[in-house]
Design goal:
The chain has about 200 residues and is an all-alpha fold. It is built from 6 helices and 2 strands, in the order ααββαααα. Helix 1 packs antiparallel against helix 2, helix 2 packs antiparallel against helix 3 and helix 4 packs antiparallel against helix 5.
């Protein structure tokens, strides 16, 4: 099976599982396990790309090449190391009463969903999917920033949301302009929404 499916599926499944058990004491270990699994899958994908070259996935909606595959692996590595660091940190915060069971569930689930959105953004071959994944990454980050529910954390979350909202709005405008420009020049029968990766057939 394509290891890219594991790169996507592991954090997505992790987010769902931790949304159910994220308040339990062993959720910290589960978070580390899912993050480590994502990193292992990314390493396997890297080896495959180096050996076999670029590949498309899911009806050419995703494209992996020797450039973005290393970004995928780096992102998964940062996610794994951060989850390891957060394991004792969040335990101390919970012992001090700063993290309630509901907040722990939110933190662990959003951690995995954020990793999922970042991995999708790095590998998608569709500009529309890229914008959606960036917006989803922004929303999950806002929830992570506001997890303490203190006045300072809520203020930081609102500022982050406003600043990123402006950038996301500009990105949407740029995506629309790119679509309109690409639709005029690409061959008939080729979707204008996917990114710049277009490989003409041998007949053309």
């Amino acid at each position: 099976m394509n290891p890219l499916y594991f790169v996507f599926g592991t954090p997505l499944l992790g987010g769902v599982v931790l949304a159910l058990i994220g308040h339990r004491s062993y959720a910290r270990d589960v978070n580390v396990a899912f993050s480590a699994s994502s990193f292992i899958a990314a390493c396997v994908l890297t080896v495959q790309i180096i050996a076999d070259g670029p590949l498309f996935a899911l009806d050419k909606q995703f494209f992996i090449d020797p450039l973005n595959v290393f970004l995928v692996t780096l992102t998964a590595f940062v996610g794994m190391t951060t989850s390891i660091f957060s394991r004792p940190y969040m335990r101390v915060e919970q012992d001090h009463g700063k993290m309630t069971p509901g907040r722990m569930r939110l933190y662990h689930s959003m951690y995995q969903f954020f990793a999922f959105t970042m991995l999708v953004a790095l590998t998608t071959n569709n500009m529309g999917t890229l914008w959606v994944s960036m917006e989803a990454a922004t929303l999950t980050t806002v929830l992570l920033v506001s997890v303490y529910r203190t006045p300072a954390s809520l203020e930081a979350a609102w500022k982050y949301f406003i600043l990123c909202g402006v950038g996301i709005a500009q990105a949407l405008f740029g995506t629309i302009l790119l679509y309109m420009a690409a639709d005029r020049v690409i061959p008939d029968g080729v979707d204008a929404l996917p990114g710049p990766i277009w490989m003409p057939s041998k007949a053309s």
